[in-house]
Each structure stands twice: as structure tokens, then as C-alpha cells.
Design a protein that fits this description.
- The chain has seven helices and six strands, in the order E-H-E-H-E-H-E-H-E-E-H-H-H.
- It is of the alpha/beta class and 197 residues long.
- The chain has a six-stranded mixed β-sheet with strand order 3-2-1-4-6-5, with helices on both faces.
- A hairpin with a 2-residue loop joins strand 5 and strand 6.
- Helix 1 packs across helix 5, helix 4 crosses helix 6 and helix 4 packs across helix 7.
- It has one domain: HUPs (Rossmann fold), CATH 3.40.50.620.
Length: 197
């Protein structure tokens, strides 16, 4: 069962990728008869092309698609470059943006930021972006989609350890859980504490 820790405003933008997390949230809000627009940002990659085709077939005419117009400059992180342009497009609608970030994302971010000497979690809301599902594990999104027969696609690039977030997810999180098996609970508590700060 998916739980929101904060509710979005009416007529929001849902950033959607076709992955299990965003498809579960799409179904969650569709079932709840919420007024929102699903928006996908195409990064000019084969993965994005596959995702767009899947989403157009799964969602139909309500899907809005934006396309990356620039090439990533040499020496700049592709992840950061894509994120910057994706959020610029999402913010161009002038509406609240809901993303599918979850607790596993927060744990990865916390580990990554700790290694850089500045431990932090993903904020529940900032600059018009709301992340209502930050205390849900990714496995809960998978269960939702499996139980309700909601289709999704796997992003093949998630297994590519050349991206730092993937390296942390695929190699470091399991080691961190050996040191602290309750790490997800600790980080979920930090997320909830941030709501009252």
C-alpha cells in the first residue's frame, strides 16, 4: 500500500518515466480521480525513445512530452545536465510538480552526500517540487503494479555503474545495510522530521 506524507495541490504535473515507481503513482492518482498532467522528458537517448513509445501506448493523449534541445558539454555530468533541463521543462508549466522519488532514492542520496562530507536527504518539497512518497520503499511500488496489473518498463541504464547513483545503489547500499540493517528506518525518520522543521 502506498502512503503519501504530503498531498499535492489540484491540477499538478506528474513527472513520469515509465518506470515502476512513476507508473504506480500514475495509477494511484488516476484511481483517486486526481486532476493532473503526466509529463515525460525525452533525453535524446535510446532509453528515452523506448520510454516515450511505452508511455504513449500506456497513457495516450493525456501525456505531454518535452525534448532535450542541447548536447551535453564535454566534461559535464550527463546526470546533472539532464536533471537541469528536465526540471526547467517541468517548471515551464507554472504548476506544482510531483515526482516519484522514494525511500531507496533518499538512502542513496544520503550515502552519496555523506561521502562528499555534506550528509543530506531529498527534501519533501522545494522550489515547486513535491515528493509525497519519500517514505515508501521501491518494492512497494512494484507490489502495487503487480497487484493491479499496471505495466512498466525497466530502464536498462540503471544497471550501468558508470553513473555514480547506480554504483551506490548496485554496490554500496547492501554493504551499508550490513553495518546498519535499520538504515531505511533511520532515513525515513529524518524525512518525517524534515516536515516539521
Amino acid at each position: 500500500m502506498l502512503k503519501q506524507i504530503i498531498k499535492p495541490t489540484e491540477n499538478f504535473i506528474l513527472a513520469i518515466s515509465g518506470g515502476v515507481d512513476s507508473m504506480a503513482i500514475y495509477d494511484f492518482y488516476t484511481t483517486g480521480k486526481k486532476n493532473f498532467t503526466p509529463v515525460f522528458f525525452h533525453h535524446k537517448t535510446k532509453t528515452s525513445e523506448k520510454a516515450e513509445q511505452f508511455l504513449r501506448k500506456s497513457i495516450g493523449d493525456s501525456l505531454v512530452v518535452g525534448y532535450l534541445e542541447e548536447e551535453c558539454p564535454k566534461g559535464e555530468s550527463k546526470e546533472q545536465f539532464w536533471r537541469k533541463h528536465r526540471y526547467a521543462f517541468l517548471r515551464s508549466f507554472g504548476k506544482q510538480i510531483v515526482t516519484a522519488h522514494h525511500l531507496d532514492d533518499v538512502v542513496e542520496t544520503w550515502i552519496f552526500s555523506c561521502l562528499r562530507g555534506n550528509p543530506k536527504t531529498i527534501p519533501v518539497q522545494n522550489q515547486g517540487v513535491v515528493r509525497p512518497f519519500l517514505t515508501n520503499r521501491k518494492s512497494e511500488f512494484r507490489k502495487w503494479c503487480e497487484n493491479k496489473k499496471v505495466p512498466w518498463i525497466e530502464d536498462e541504464s540503471n544497471s550501468d555503474d558508470k553513473y555514480m547513483r547506480n554504483f551506490i545503489r548496485n554496490n554500496m547500499v547492501q554493504d551499508a545495510l550490513i553495518v546498519n540493517p535499520g538504515l531505511h528506518k533511520v532515513i525515513a525518520k529524518k524525512v518525517m522530521e524534515s516536515l516539521v522543521e
